[in-house]
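Protein data:
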Amino acid sequence: MPRPIQATIHTQALAHNLNVARRHAPDARVWAVVKANAYGHGIERAFAGLRGADGFALLDLAEAQRVRDLGWRGPVLLLEGVFEQRDLELCSRLDLWHTVHCEQQIDMLATHKTNVPQRVFLKMNSGMNRLGFRPAQYRSAWTRLNALPQVDEISHMTHFSDADGPAGIERQMAVFETATQDLPGERSVSNSAAVLRHAGVPAASDWVRPGIAVYGSAPDHPEHTAAHWGLQPSMTLQAKVIAVQALQAGDSVGYGSSFVADQPMRVGVVACGYADGYPRICPTGTPVLVDGVRSRTLGRVSMDMLSVDLTQLPDAGQGSTVTLWGRAHNGAVQSIDEVAALAGTLAYELMCALAPRVPVGVSE
């Protein structure tokens, strides 16, 4: 039989979370952000839950082709734009919208031979200092684009660096509004944190770009949980207990003997390890659900196995289902944000790091 580990993608949760974003930005259209293979969920698996979006935003042409192959005929946006001249040919063929964030991309457009002008999103660096034109150069970039016959409508875009924290978005929003004042075109400014935390901002955005919230993670954890925002887990990772060990006081668990029992204990060995995408750095005490009941990990995570505490769970044993994150069969939820925080990272990384060897199923 196959090794007893399984990830499940919940399409109804994806649709629900997308609607949460819509309720927070009722006057805006919503991009479903599916970069990084839909945050590790798989574009093909996630599509049914996200097809209620107004468009799909992603990074590369291969992902764009996959979305078109699924039958999507609406807007598709390349969030980093094109990387070389010939990419524009595929943008024309697949009817892709694309971001322009540097002079070289304008140069490519200026020499692109096409009979159909392209829709572009001109990106401003309003303080994130990753991609985009600085405010002082933004209008000249817009003027260059606007003069090109290869360009149809120009929309305006920026990205917030601190929407999830106390610094907020006001400074960047003011920079963006000043630099784009009186320029025609739609605006797209709000990521997940801006959509959920800054209620007035989506009104200034014709398009919002919720990413992590659509996949059931709170963009401002631990200040707020996913449940606080009404989000549902879209990915569940579960494995079975494959062995049970009876420990006496003084016995240790795992490599390095980092956990030592101070009393008799029952320990379940679970078919999941860091080679499956579960963080090796998760410490003893990281929560799990055993048959839907909260418990904890013990000792170090190994490549293929980890250990959980069964001492207070007399009915649990070999064959019990352990929910590493997501929704258990009884409806209990183990927050992926909680696991990620104990690993010193974010839910984004855990979702994207799900290993290829883990079987993935889809459920409503």
